[in-house]
# Entry
Amino acid sequence: MKLKRVLTMILAASMAIGLVGCGGSSSEKTPESVAGKEIQSGDKIKISLWHVWPEGNGGTAESFKKTLVEMEEKFPEVDFVIDAVADSGDAYKTKIKTAIAGGEAPDIFYSWGGGFSKAFVDAGKVMCLDDYMDEETKAKIIEGTTNNFIYDGKLYGLPTRVNIGLLYCNKSMFEEAGLELPATYDELMNAINVFKDKGITPMCVGAKDTWTAAMYLNALTMREAGTDYVNQVVNGKATIDTPEIKKSVELYQGMIDAGAFTEGAIAISKDESQAVFLAGGMPMYYNGSWLCANIFDSPIKDDIVALNFPVVEGGKGDPNEFLGGADQTFMINSEAKNPEKVVEVYKFMCESFSKNVFTSGAGLPTWKSEVDTSTIENQLLVDAYNLYQNCTGLSLWWDTALTSEKATTHLETVTETFMKTITPDEFIEKHKTFLQ
# Structure
């Protein structure tokens, strides 16, 4: 108990940012919706839930809206108190950290696996699910998709969808340039040079949101060193100081030298840069499979092909390895009352949401279900799903896999690398100070 109190104090100190004003939200909260209070309205049990998809906020929002309707139909005895934050970036992260530190978290809350939720788990704020995982539930979940929610051998979250990194290519722009779609790094560099010579910015990135720039570097590291080794590095079990990882940073800066990205990209946001790509202004964009929904609603939806990141000849990575994984989850407050009912609702929600995001074309599933892919209108997502079926390994994006403080340092170092104010050797040395 003493250790938990200390951890809670540390967590609270590190999250000392006010909950009020943490970003727009669509809220139906009441003071009674906070977990830890066993409140019933008439014959109904009240369960509070926070998520990040307000109505009208894209394909995922529609999928979750459908899931909420199914939950209300399945559990008429439950009064759901829902709070939806307008984005899944820093506003929500600040809000959930502050709420957990202050003992004001809801019964069920959206979160990320890997390093992001480790502080919550270490502080005893999240319910362990091991005692609630019957064989029937385990059999429904696609193998390996719970890995990022296991801490010290115990399960704290169930998966909702898999996200993988994909190189989105505008095939019409490639055809006009007389180019084949790139399968190797050398072919990618050739395409960059050809488009650059034509006055076209080859690749989309909004490096003001550093994680978008980090994805390119993380992918090259995966290609050079392989997912198994990269995962060991991120977990502090292997050295980052290897020829392969140094080579990946050199290749990354080689893309920058060739003019792969917009000049001044460090001052451009993800949304600003992405808008140009979705309007047909750039031929290539490496981003997550969640982008399939945005592309489907854009004028270029019939022009886009999804590929895995090009292989590096001589690299140790397998061609069918992907950057990404099942990184998004919901977790249950360890102080939630009516835990049996909360867990029952929670398991139904995760399974239903996984199916709905896939059938609506908003994501890849983590739960097994009989889905006829011919009924899915978003063919780009079906193509991504088919690519994922051949997956031989996954390496989660570093800013999610690492704990919050380490992730921040990693992204700061990526920014320096992107701006070329540090060398590949310095990139490695900086990472050695906090990875090992």
User: Anything to note?
Assistant: Confidence is low (pLDDT under 50) at residues 1-40. The first helix runs from residue 2 to 14. DSSP finds 17 helices and 15 strands in the chain.
